[in-house]
């Protein structure tokens, strides 16, 4: 039963006992910086619909939560899980190019986290070359990764959705106006909430 009066009246009419839905669990989500010398990158993929082009974005921050750079990359027509893999590959490539070799990657994709954990190269052929380059780069880095909830990945989510309107790869050395409030919230340790 959905905890409404209509359901209760119907159940009483048939002389049945209702079993109310359980109350949601509310979890506090706070972005946490890393140890000195490490950089954190949060990544995400996005799409307007299942048949549209996909895009990915990410943000690099140092151990004090200051923005080191962020990216938006429009992608061709790929599946959602391929967009998440490409987001990880692109982020690692940017880190490699900038000489950031102590990286902690956070993704809300359990698929990406599973593949990073196993260092598996069993990925779709369209993203295999980028993924193999990613695996090579992380073998030469101090690299960690973790799965996070979408609520803890708000800046990367905003960046990837912003890329849906772009036609070229973009890199910025600071946060953009549309996500600066989210970045500030992370820097100040403000919490958001996840309902499950």
UniProtKB/TrEMBL annotation:
It comes from the Eukaryota. Gene3D superfamilies: Ribonuclease H-like superfamily/Ribonuclease H. Residues 42-163 form the RNase H type-1 domain. GO terms for molecular function: nucleic acid binding; RNA-DNA hybrid ribonuclease activity. InterPro entries: RNase_H-like (IPR053151), RNase_H-like_dom_plant (IPR044730), RNaseH-like_sf (IPR012337), RNaseH_domain (IPR002156), RNaseH_sf (IPR036397). Pfam families: RVT_3. CDD domains: RNase_H_like. Transmembrane segments: none annotated. This is RNase H type-1 domain-containing protein. The lineage of its organism: Eukaryota, Viridiplantae, Streptophyta, Embryophyta, Tracheophyta.
